[in-house]
Write the structure tokens for this entry.
Amino acid sequence: MKTLGMIGGVGPESTIDYYKNIIALHRERKPDGHYPQFVINSIDLQKGIDFLEANNLAGMADFLLSEIQKLPPAGADFGIIAANTPHIVFAEVKARSPIPFISIVEASRDYAKSRNFKRLALFGTRYTMRADFYQKVFAREGIELVVPEPKDQDYIHEKYFAELVPGIFLPETRENLLAIADRMKDKMDIEGVLLAGTELALILRGESHNGVALLDTGKIHC
């Protein structure tokens, strides 16, 4: 069995969820008492944010690669980045990585294609919603991604870092996030919401809301 290497800590709460999901999925597939081996390198979230705030994508890629270099000596044969926003530099990271990496964006695209979705809302950090790395990958399969209006993007981003990353999950925030989804369903006829911020799935639990699918990208990635 090959050993997985995970870049985690971006953020910590969703890294824990990744761990639980991987174990749960393994139990479902092979209920033989054995567990998968994997290595987690929990990195400093703030360093990544600093690179993004400075629009220093080259620095972001170098930072991730410096942490990825630590995985093979620990026994990792392949890897994942347990977060969405760092995938803004995934192409460069994958090209320069010493081990193969599996993309959360491509995994989510393949899942959306299997569900025959044609239009989805994209929720995530401001960096993810205002970039186009998700849209480009989904467009290749004819799937349109639409983003919330600017004030709703600001709300999602603010709550993401002020509450969700530190592990604070408030009913009011959940209601407001779902209200954004409801408005987008009414105005844009979305079929689902792509939770392209792994902490979002921790507050928006469940498979759907008011007929709109909630796609947990972290679980899909696992």
Summary: Residues 12-29 form the longest helix (18 residues).
